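Section 5: illustrative case.
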């Protein structure tokens, strides 16, 4: 037997350390939380994606009493971007969450389904996507989904 070690690399920032365009993207993700439909969990998540041409799109989580018919903010945002701007790769995706009256102190990671959709989006455009995960205390940055989904399932696995 041998061990397989997989490392993930994240940069950790304070909001003020980010570029102006990244601060704007995170602010849009935070603001998007206000449009979440979360009557059951009260856990609002917003996402903002900056496309290769500079266009920014946002999305939110949407709940449904018939669980699991809802959808996460990351998938809402990426599906919208992919359907409305099919020729534009996603350059950066920012994610923020709001719960019980305030934004989360620690960054919120995407769920497994969202990680798979991020992977598919990267594969579609053959370009890694920068991901900014917002928390009041700190912001995580990773350069591509491989840091969040190191052993990923792709079309090559089906060959």
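Designed sequence:
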């Amino acid at each position: 037997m041998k061990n397989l070690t997989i490392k993930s690399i994240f940069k950790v920032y304070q909001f003020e350390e980010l570029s102006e365009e990244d601060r704007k993207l995170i602010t849009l993700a935070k603001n998007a939380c206000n449009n979440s439909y979360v009557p059951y969990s009260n856990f609002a998540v917003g996402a903002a994606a900056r496309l290769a041409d500079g266009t920014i799109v946002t999305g939110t989580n949407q709940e449904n009493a018939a669980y699991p018919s809802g959808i996460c903010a990351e998938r809402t945002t990426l599906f919208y971007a992919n359907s409305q701007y099919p020729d534009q790769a996603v350059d950066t995706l920012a994610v923020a969450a709001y719960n019980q009256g305030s934004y989360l102190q620690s960054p919120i990671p995407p769920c497994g389904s969202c990680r798979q959709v991020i992977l598919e989006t990267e594969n579609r455009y053959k370009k890694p996507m920068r991901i900014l995960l917002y928390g009041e205390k700190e912001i995580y940055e990773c350069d591509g989904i491989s840091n969040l989904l190191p052993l990923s399932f792709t079309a090559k696995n089906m060959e």
